């Protein structure tokens, strides 16, 4: 036999591991580009080679990292060869090789040894690349266009009034009349005409004798669409202004004024502006037909110009609300004279950007980069553009949109941070096949225009796109950009440049309409059947210049038109102007809205469902959980909560509707844990916490909105406690110690701030800004208006934070800190119970559900009183509230688990399955496809009444997985290294099918009841173990436990210890949980 054949025979005969490494990750991401973690952590899952195998475990690993794939293919690691490391660690293994430099390509693979010492084959190769690690690596300059083409109207206008004294100081309580005329050309078609107008105190606007609109809030100008009221030739703009009496000042100190600007845009040529000034006419008397074009106002005096926009006493009313700014288009050509081996683009385009190379849009990402406070952090995104480059002439193009950098509002409803005009930092590294390197930079050699098709864009008001302004070939070499202007060198935004290490925002699903109605001539309403965050996609044929508008909302009125009450000042409208010449397909790229219904106007002809699609848009985190049970209502509630996660998470947790869309801190604390069961949110919440760290004030306080797009700071303790609560569960859930070390100082300083600032001598804290927000006392028809004591809530959170910081300190080896915070926690606990607990009645102050939930959740209840306190909570639920929860935003984050931990999962299930108000089932009964902002959104005022607020789902999803499915992590063995499987059969449930893909692999819990037998199929991933609680009255009633270790009987369960693999248990004697 030949030697080679013998070697082959021996090799194939050698035993191999019963598992193979798979799904390689670097910092939780698959093949990430441009990271800036100096010592990245590597993880892998282990896939059984035999599906029937049990007890698989890793005993050792070896990692190879090479600078190119050719070297790695020879089983060599020129950057790092870990050698055989005796360890069962398969997650968060820190890179230990040569120091990594900017742009370094790191190809890696891993093999493992199993519990029997047998090696696996090498995994498939994976990749990560390094970004720009040092400020000096950036050679590019910031470019853009500052200050031009902002389409805000009132800056051109003057405050005016009837000429009588000094109206800016005081004017008669009376009605006055104003007129102006404007001649419009007949050879240009009007495509948009909006009048921005305000009066102190009230106004009614007429255009050519027809009422166009009215308003009564001078601090918030009204925008009125006047396009359909104008005509070629002479037009008259007429306003009735009313100065009303004030209960606090006399007439001589009651100012009056009118300010207005009508901007008219045409299909060609420059826009026309009609603004209030001294050329307007005014009168103190109304005569017949005074508001029409035929009236002669020659006898009327000129209006008195009081001063420019921004003058006292009114200031910058509305502060240019509905800020409109066209997208900037920037381009540059360059030559690549040699074959390119690798081409890597590093791009920071603020607020959002799209990148094009040689005419091709790079990637499928939307709304890059992720949201930050731009004076603290500015994220760059890395792209491999090697396939797009060619030898010779090349071109790069970037579209810059506003995002939150150029804020959609700056004053309403509260002062808002705006960071400047859109700007770009761009660096393209060309690594040639011969080893030489060339760099293409953003610099003075670029050109730009604001005359592209994206005429306006902001997330509140929508995107306006004029396809006639498209410029074919603009991002290809040879395009004629002679009419484009040179870029400006602009100031850097001020934040640290960091790599974007979070999954991008993408279109993750496409919805088809379930109905298209026609409630009025020319008005069509598209129903997608599901509330979602995203944009409509339009497919249309029609003549050039046809303007189609799409207004998105959650619901419709009785007349079939959309109901925009919840939008408040947000327009939520996208418009598309056709270029003509065939089918046109368009969707906005730089904005999105929470929507279900789309009201379409201006469509050429009668549309059908084929003309529309709903593009679901959110951070594209991996789906890792599935839950379904025998109760269809519970399944629908779970679906609603899951849709809420998708709607709210767009690089930060943020409302998806109306004119806030702020990253509030209130709900993510434990709701984030729920999201972790359904989606891999590790990178998402690491980014979120990073935003908090860099924005922490010097005194340790934190705002409840971060990034701080709104500027107020209440210094609350409850909502910003996300900085302690999220790292706490995150560490246990993902087995990630770095989340604690990265955030520890922030957690510590935040807790110490409240000790120094708000702690009273008895160690309690009174200040709590929001209380248990939107609890059942908010119900319109509530017969229980009790609210939970705010000092009780804030002190409970103070105690909880002390315990979390102490625990984190112990894990990080900070022994003295642990002692300090343990001691502080004990004093807070003592003070809490002295002030809020009545040991004679076993009741807490307020006697609400939440007043019991917080002490139970945080371990504040004296042990010998716990059963009585639980009984009071259950009584509040079942008796006083007839099986309903009365808690709000913060209470619901702990409510369900408290009941399970107290031995009453049956009560939690009864609440979850409730169908009358207040409940999740009530929402479903009213057609909800997400979780509402209030328990009774259907009857409340629309102003604060969203159908997309995740806040009331609390920790519900985690409860479904943990209690009904039984999948729990073990804090003593973080990351699901050891799993606790403990399903609770409650209520009328006959089956639950539940799975979660942990850092180690898929965990499956699938139980059903057939006759009198409880059947349970379980899957445990390799390299983990589990403690399983099989519902049973006695161990001998359990079948399928052969070969596994029996531990004990506990409650109504037989408890076993098992290794990895698939198991099937059956229990012939068991009981549903509850009383």
Task: Offer a quick outline of the entry.
The protein is an alpha+beta fold.
- Categorize the overall geometry: globular
Give the CATH level 1 class of the largest domain. Answer: Mainly Alpha
Overall average pLDDT: 93
Question: What is the domain total for the residues?
Answer: 6
CATH architecture of the largest domain: Alpha/alpha barrel
Number of helices: 15
Q: Summarize the amount of helix as a percent range.
A: 10-25%
Strand content: 25-35%
CATH topology of the largest domain: Glycosyltransferase
The largest pleated sheet is described as:
10 strands, mixed
What does this structure look like?
There is one protein chain. With 1075 residues, the protein is of the alpha+beta class. It has 15 helices and 57 strands. Strands 30, 31, 35, 36, 37, 38, 41, 42, 43 and 44 form a ten-stranded mixed β-sheet that branches. Strands 9, 22, 25, 27, 28, 33 and 34 form a seven-stranded mixed β-sheet that branches. The chain is globular.
Outline the fold blueprint.
Blueprint: H1 3-13, E1 19-26, E2 41-48, E3 58-66, H2 69-73, E4 80-81, E5 85-86, E6 93-94, E7 105-114, E8 126-129, E9 143-144, E10 158-161, E11 175-184, E12 190-200, E13 202-207, E14 210-215, E15 222-225, E16 233-242, E17 257-266, E18 272-275, E19 281-283, E20 304-308, E21 328-336, E22 340-350, E23 352-357, E24 360-361, E25 377-384, E26 392-401, E27 423-432, E28 437-441, E29 447-449, E30 454-458, E31 462-466, E32 485-486, E33 488-489, E34 496-499, E35 505-511, E36 515-520, E37 523-540, E38 547-553, E39 555-556, E40 562-563, E41 573-577, E42 584-586, E43 593-601, E44 612-619, E45 625-629, H3 632-648, H4 668-678, H5 682-695, H6 722-734, H7 738-757, H8 790-811, H9 815-836, E46 837-838, E47 843-844, H10 849-858, H11 866-880, H12 892-901, H13 905-912, H14 920-925, H15 956-965, E48 967-969, E49 978-981, E50 991-997, E51 1002-1010, E52 1013-1020, E53 1025-1031, E54 1038-1039, E55 1045-1050, E56 1053-1058, E57 1061-1067
């Amino acid at each position: 036999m030949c030697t080679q054949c013998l070697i082959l025979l021996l090799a194939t005969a050698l035993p191999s591991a019963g598992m193979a490494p798979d799904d390689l990750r670097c910092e939780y991401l698959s093949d990430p580009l441009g990271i800036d973690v100096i010592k990245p952590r590597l993880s892998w899952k282990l896939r059984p080679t035999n599906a029937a195998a049990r007890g698989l475990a890793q005993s050792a690993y070896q990692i190879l990292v090479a600078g190119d794939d050719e070297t790695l293919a020879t089983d060599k690691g020129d950057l790092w060869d870990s050698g055989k490391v005796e360890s069962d660690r398969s997650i968060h293994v820190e890179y230990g090789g040569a120091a990594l430099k900017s742009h370094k390509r790191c190809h890696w693979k891993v093999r493992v040894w199993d519990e029997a010492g047998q090696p696996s084959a090498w995994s498939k190769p994976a990749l990560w690349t390094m970004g720009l690690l040092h400020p000096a690596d950036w050679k590019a300059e910031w470019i853009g266009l500052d200050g031009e083409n902002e389409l805000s109207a009132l800056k051109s206008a003057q405050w005016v009034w009837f000429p009588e004294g000094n109206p800016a100081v005081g004017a008669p309580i009376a009605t006055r009349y104003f007129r102006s005329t404007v001649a419009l050309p007949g050879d240009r078609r009007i495509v948009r005409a909006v009048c921005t107008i305000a009066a102190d105190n009230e106004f009614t606007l007429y255009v050519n004798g027809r009422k166009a609109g009215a308003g009564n809030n001078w601090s918030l100008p009204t925008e009125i669409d006047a396009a359909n009221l104008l005509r070629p030739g002479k037009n008259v703009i007429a306003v009735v202004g009313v100065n009303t009496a004030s209960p606090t000042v006399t007439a001589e100190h009651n100012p009056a004024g009118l300010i207005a600007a009508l901007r008219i845009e045409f299909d060609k040529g420059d826009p026309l502006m009609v603004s209030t000034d001294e050329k307007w006419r005014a009168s103190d008397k109304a005569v017949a037909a005074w508001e029409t074009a035929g009236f002669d106002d020659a006898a009327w005096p000129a209006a008195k110009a009081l001063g420019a926009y921004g003058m006292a006493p009114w200031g910058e009313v509305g502060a240019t609300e509905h800020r409109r700014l066209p997208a900037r288009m920037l381009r540059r050509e360059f030559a690549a004279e040699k074959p390119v081996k690798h081409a890597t683009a590093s791009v920071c385009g603020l607020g959002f950007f799209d990148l094009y190379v040689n005419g091709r849009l790079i990637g499928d990402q939307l709304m890059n980069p992720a949201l930050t406070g731009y004076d603290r952090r500015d994220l760059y995104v890395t792209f491999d553009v090697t396939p797009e480059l060619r030898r010779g002439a090349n071109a790069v193009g970037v579209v810059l949109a506003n995002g939150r950098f150029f804020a959609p509002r700056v004053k309403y409803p509260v002062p808002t941070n705006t960071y400047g005009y859109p700007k770009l930092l761009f660096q393209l590294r060309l690594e040639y096949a011969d080893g030489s390197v060339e760099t293409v930079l953003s610099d003075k050699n670029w050109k730009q225009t604001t005359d592209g098709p994206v005429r306006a864009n902001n997330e509140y008001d929508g995107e306006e796109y004029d396809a006639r302004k498209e410029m074919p070939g603009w991002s290809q070499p040879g395009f004629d950009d002679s009419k484009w202007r040179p870029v400006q060198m602009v100031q850097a935004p001020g934040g640290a440049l960091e790599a974007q290490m979070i999954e991008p925002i993408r279109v993750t699903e496409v919805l088809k309409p379930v109905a298209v109605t026609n409630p009025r001539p020319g008005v069509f309403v598209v129903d997608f059947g599901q509330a979602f965050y995203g944009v409509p996609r339009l497919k249309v044929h029609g003549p050039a210049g046809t303007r189609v508008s799409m207004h998105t909302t959650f619901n419709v009125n009785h007349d079939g038109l959309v109901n925009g009450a919840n939008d408040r000042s947000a327009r939520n409208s996208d418009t598309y102007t056709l270029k003509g010449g065939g089918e046109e397909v368009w969707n906005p790229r730089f904005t999105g809205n929470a929507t279900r219904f789309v009201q379409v106007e201006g469509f050429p002809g009668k549309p059908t469902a084929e003309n529309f699609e709903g593009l679901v848009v959110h951070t594209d985190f991996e789906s890792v959980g599935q839950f379904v049970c025998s109760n269809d209502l519970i399944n629908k509630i779970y679906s609603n909560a899951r849709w809420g996660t998708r709607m709210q998470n767009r690089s930060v947790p943020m409302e998806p509707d109306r004119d806030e869309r702020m990253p509030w801190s209130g709900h993510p604390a434990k709701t984030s844990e729920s999201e972790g069961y359904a989606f891999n949110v590790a990178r998402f919440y690491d980014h979120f916490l990073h935003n908090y760290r860099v924005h922490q004030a010097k005194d340790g306080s934190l705002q409840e909105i971060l990034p701080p797009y709104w500027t107020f700071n209440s210094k609350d303790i409850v909502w910003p406690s996300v900085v302690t609560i999220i790292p706490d569960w995150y560490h246990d859930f993902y087995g990630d110690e770095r989340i604690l070390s990265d955030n520890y100082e922030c957690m510590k300083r935040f807790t110490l701030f409240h000790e120094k600032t708000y702690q009273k001598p008895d160690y309690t804290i009174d200040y709590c800004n929001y209380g248990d927000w939107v609890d059942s006392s908010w119900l319109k028809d509530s017969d229980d208006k009790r609210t939970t004591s705010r000092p009780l809530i804030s002190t409970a959170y103070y105690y909880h934070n002390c315990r979390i910081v102490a625990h984190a300190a112990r894990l990080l080896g900070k022994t003295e800190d642990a002692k300090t915070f343990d001691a502080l926690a004990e004093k807070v606990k003592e003070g809490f119970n002295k002030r809020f607990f009545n040991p004679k009645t076993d009741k807490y102050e307020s006697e609400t559900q939440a007043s019991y939930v917080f002490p139970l959740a945080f371990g504040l209840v004296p042990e010998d009183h716990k059963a009585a306190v639980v009984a009071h909570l259950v009584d509040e639920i079942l008796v006083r509230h007839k099986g309903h929860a009365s808690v709000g935003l913060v209470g619901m984050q702990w409510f369900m688990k408290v009941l399970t931990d107290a031995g009453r999962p049956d009560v939690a299930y009864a609440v979850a399955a409730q169908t009358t108000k207040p409940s999740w089932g009530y929402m479903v009964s009213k057609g909800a496809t997400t979780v509402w902002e209030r328990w009774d959104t259907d009857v409340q005022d629309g102003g604060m009444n969203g159908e997309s607020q995740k806040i009331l789902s609390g920790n519900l999803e985690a409860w479904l997985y943990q209690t009904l499915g039984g999948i729990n992590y073990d804090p003593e063995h973080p990351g699901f290294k050891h799993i606790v499987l403990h399903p609770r059969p409650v209520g009328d449930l006959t089956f639950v099918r539940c799975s979660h893909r942990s850092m180690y692999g898929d965990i499956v819990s699938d139980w059903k009841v057939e006759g009198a037998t409880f059947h349970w199929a379980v899957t445990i991933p390799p390299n983990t173990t589990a403690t399983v609680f099989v519902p049973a009255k006695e161990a001998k009633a359990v079948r399928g436990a052969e070969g596994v270790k029996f531990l004990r009987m506990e409650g109504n369960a037989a408890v076993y210890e098992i290794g990895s693999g698939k198991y099937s248990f059956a229990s012939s004697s068991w009981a549903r949980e509850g009383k």
